[in-house]
Amino acid sequence: MSDTAAIAAYPALAGVIALRDAGWTFLHRDLIEGVPTTIEGFRLWHGGWIDAVRVRGDADAMALRTDGADPPGIVWETSGTLADVIDALRVLPSPDHPSAPRLVRATGPIPTPWTGAAG
Questions:
Q1: HEC letters along 47-78
Q2: What DSSP state is assigned to residue 88?
Q3: Predicted pLDDT of residue 12
Q4: Residue 42 lies inside a defined structural domain of this protein
Q5: Which residue among 13, 17, 25, 93 has the highest number of C-beta atoms inside a 10 angstrom radius?
Q6: Could you give the number of structural domains in the chain?
Q7: Alpha-carbon dihedral 109, 115, 118, 119, rounded to 10 degrees
Q8: Closest C-alpha to 40, from 22, 64, 21
Q9: CB of 79 within 8 A of CB of 85?
Q10: In a 10 Å sphere around its CB, with 0-12 CB exposed, 13-18 middle and 19+ buried, how is residue 59 labelled?
């Protein structure tokens, strides 16, 4: 399906496509009749930092940033509508920016979209 057709069918995907175009990698899980019911994405940063997003619907999305430690430390997270989560990711400073979050709020292991592993 083309981006235009995907956005026409599911307008909320415009934000996901914008993240993909900004360097994110996406995986589609749990297909029903060829349509993903869950979309997971991640962006790898220098220094081991990882941003991740999980989308289950227009009103069910979450994102987080981990520090790349073992176990991973969660330094930022948000959840809500897909539009709200995408907006929060767009303004989240890169990990090397002075105002980027660095304080570990929780630790993994956590399910990771790039490995499919669960803790």
A1: HHCEEEEEEEECCEEEEEEECCCCCCEEEEEE
A2: H
A3: 83
A4: yes
A5: 13
A6: 1
A7: -30
A8: 64
A9: yes
A10: exposed
Name the amino acid, one letter, at 1: M
Q: Tokens representing 102?
A: 């660095």
| Structure tokens given for 62 | 């979450």
- Tokens 């790898």 correspond to 44
Asked if residues 91 and 85 have their Cβ atoms less than 8 Å apart, the reply is no
Contact by Cβ (8 Å): 66, 76: no
The amino acid at residue 102 is R
Q: In what order do the strands lie in the sheet with 25-32?
A: 25-32, 35-44, 50-57, 60-66, 73-80, 106-107
Three-state SS for 119?
coil
| Per-run averaged pLDDT (10 residues), the chain, 119 residues | 84 90 86 76 95 93 94 95 95 97 85 51
Is residue 117 situated within a structural domain? no
Please return the burial class of 87, using the count of CB atoms within 10 Å of its CB with bins 0-12, 13-18 and 19+: middle
